[in-house]
Every structure is written in structure tokens, then in C-alpha cells.
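Sample pair:
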Amino acid sequence: MEIHIYKTKDEMGAAAALKGAHLLRDALNKKGSATIVVATGSSQFEMLSALTKENLDWSRITAFHLDEYIGIPLTHPASFRKYLKERFVDLVPLKDFHYISGEGDPAKEIERLNEAIGKQHIDVAFIGIGENAHLAFNDPPADLETTEPYIEVQLDRECRQQQLNEGWFPTFEDVPERAISMSIRQILKADAIICTVPGERKATAIKLTLDNPVVADVPASALKSHPNVNLYLDRHSSSAIPRL
């Protein structure tokens, strides 16, 4: 794992996007096409903004959505489909984007997604880490063994509180209890992982990720088993670890 620390969120996001764009250009040059995974949440604002400004042939890039609440319509302010449509999909002419719908039958949606991603090779996964060290919506103790690409998960209290604190919901009771999430093993299938984690609220999760072996109680520790992870931090999220 390569760790990169920057003074500000803007610098961090720009550097993460630049690295991701370099990896995508390499994939496009070698294969003629590329496939990515994109995350949401406040941690991804700066990175996604910078990524949309990169000079890439987006018409040859397919993207997959990382996770979504169950029971949230597209019009809901917290909808991750809405977030990605406004901050990414509408800004770049992608070949295709595979949204996750949390409406309707979750089992059927998961079956559809698993069939779609099963046909793809993921070149770059753009992800974050939660305050409870979750990856996607794989809260602790996470299922590190399932080989299903997308799964239905239960959101723990700390994860739901994070969503409330970030301003996505008016009350804790409004935060959904379940979601559709890309599994950890599927995330780790990507050739390269760009993990962008700003903010003091994430400092403990970063320390736990780096200090622990791969354990279900610290889902992000699974990143340590991947050969090509770039972890981007700002001065706040890196505040609990020794300066490298």
C-alpha cells in the first residue's frame, strides 16, 4: 500500500484523480477500454470533481456504482444514484454506467448487478473508508469470504450515525438500516484501488486499518492484501499515524 498525505482536501483529491487518470490512460492504451468503480459520500467530493476534469476518452469507459441504500428513491437528497448522476455521470460521456437501484426487490437487483459485473474486468476502483473502517457498506464484522459481487447488508449504528452527521438525513431514524453493497472480495478484484479519505473523523479508522492485520472487525484492513492500493489522506485523516 502506498500512502500519500496532503495538507488540504483539494490537494488530496486532485492527486488521487491524477493517479486514477494515469491508470485509466494506461488501461485504455493497452486494451482499448476500461472499467471503473466509483464511490460516494463527502469523502469523494474533491476527487470526483478533479476526475471529471481529466482529459480521458470517457466514451471507452464503463463504470459501476459501489453501494446504495435500500428503500431510497432517486429523488431523495441522500440517494447515491442522485449524487453520482449530478457529480459524475452527467459531467462525462461514459460508455455506460451501472446504477444500483434500492427500490423494488433487492434480490432481483443484486442478481442483475452480479450478472453485469461478472462480464467485466475492473481496472480501477475509486473508494473511501468509513468512520467505522467500512469499505463500501460492508460494516464490521464484514463478510470477507463471500464471492458474490453485490450483497445485501445491514448497516450498523456507527455507519448510520455517520450518514446523519454528514447531513444526508434529518434524523437518525430516517437513515435506512439496509443497503446493497459491492462485496469486499469484488472490490479487491480491481487491478488498482484509489482510496481517498479526508477528515479528522476518519483518523481512527485509518489508524485501525494500518495497525491491524486483515480482520473482519476492521473491514478496510482487507486493502492490505491487495498489491496495488494508493491511499490518499489529508493532514486531518492522517493525524493519528506517524508521519512517513
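The chain has one domain: 2-234.
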